[in-house]
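Can't paste images in this forum, so I'm doing it all in text. The chain is below; anyone willing to post the predicted structure tokens underneath?
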Amino acid sequence: MNAPLRRAGVVILVLFGLLFANLNWVQAYKADDYRTSDYNGRVVVAQYKRPRGVIEADGKALAESKATDDELTYLRTYPKKQAYAPVIGYRPVNLGATGIENSEDDFLSGESDKLFADRVKDMFTGNNTGGGNVILSLSTAAQDTAYKEIINNERGVTKGAAVAIDPRTGAVQAMVSMPSYDPNPLASHDVKAAAAAYQKLLKDKDNPLLNRATQETLPPGSTMKTIISAAALTDGLKPSDEIPAGSIYRESGAVIRNDADEVCPSDQVTLKEALTESCNTGYAKLGVKLGRDKVVNMAKAFGFEDEKLTVGNLEGDGLPVAASRTGAIANPDGSVDKGALAQSSIGQRDVRMTPMQGALIAATVANGGKQMRPYLVQKLLSPDRRTIYSATPKTLRTPITSSVASDLKDMMVSVVENGTGKKARISGFEVGGKTGTAQNAVGADPHGWFIGFAFNDKGEPVSAVCVMLENVPGSHASGEAARIAGLIMKAAAGKGD
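Text version of the structure:
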């Protein structure tokens, strides 16, 4: 055999070897990936041969499967449309799911190990019972109120979010994002129509697919003063102790002024009065006095910088929550930038917070300093409604002592009873909170925030909330957020109209 033939033979043998190796790779290692791929048409048809489990809250279906005459036997539908979409998400035919539809996909589809016994039973009975059911912690009264009020807000705002949590357990009572979207077109069996609907939402400049409650981070304004108050109280300050204030404060190029001339114009003000009136100069000076480390560490203790938090199943996955940030608060050489620290102490500069984080701050104060891990999945039920899983509340962190929480609670109650948060008041409940008006882009309207909590007549915390409205026109941007927050907490407590 001459040399060219030998070389050709070697090449052919190598190619056969590579082909053989690739076939083994596909069969041994990639088979499951290809079998379960969303782009595998046979798998899709098989998945839709049985009904996907129901997602519900308060006995009301939020996502369910209905029989059709299509090749895909069951169509996923969302009766509540926009109001629950940021939480529920959607399950399209040939793309990845989102929201609870994604995080509980195995259980809803019936493929979870938790439902193994049900699958074995079906093998003997010949039944096709479908997937498991997911029961959410949402209060439909609170969710519906939050969506209605935020969509029909009195300031004409088009972007915002609201989160309500049971401080004692971490159960999410409401989660709303504006603008929202109707998930039904995205779940259509007409994949071209579904893709067109998705592309339209994707190109929308207002980004309706973004869950602002968990993913939007914006400057929180004066709600940050709860963190500074917690740091000061932990450092030994009392609510009745006086701190430096005044009408203006200049620090390393930063100029801090109060919202109005009548806000803490004197040189000294008590810590409680400073929070009640939302005294910018007092808190800017206080933050600088405490120092960067104490401010940043207290923010971290409450959950800032947490990049791993999800909200869904306490024993599994859930909706990811973007990390809230304090920013570096540093000069180029790494030393403390006192001007940035002064601005950061009133929730400006590089401080960014999610509405979920705001609700967790309020919930922590209401729960005596203990922050419970937030969750959405209350129960998992088998197709025949047997309980497979029930949420057991878990402590996430304890950033402050019960003594500090008690003092801070009283200060926040004063904000609602005597200060900037009066619009959050609810008859028959003790309400505390903190307003925030956050400057952002030059020439843009400020963001309006409110974080707060409500106690019933038995002294029990029944709800903690954060409402955020983006770019609120006119003055007192936080007032409308406070009004909406009060109505959400009232509904969560079972006292809605």
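Residues 196 and 424 are 42 Å apart (CA to CA). The first helix runs from residue 3 to 28.
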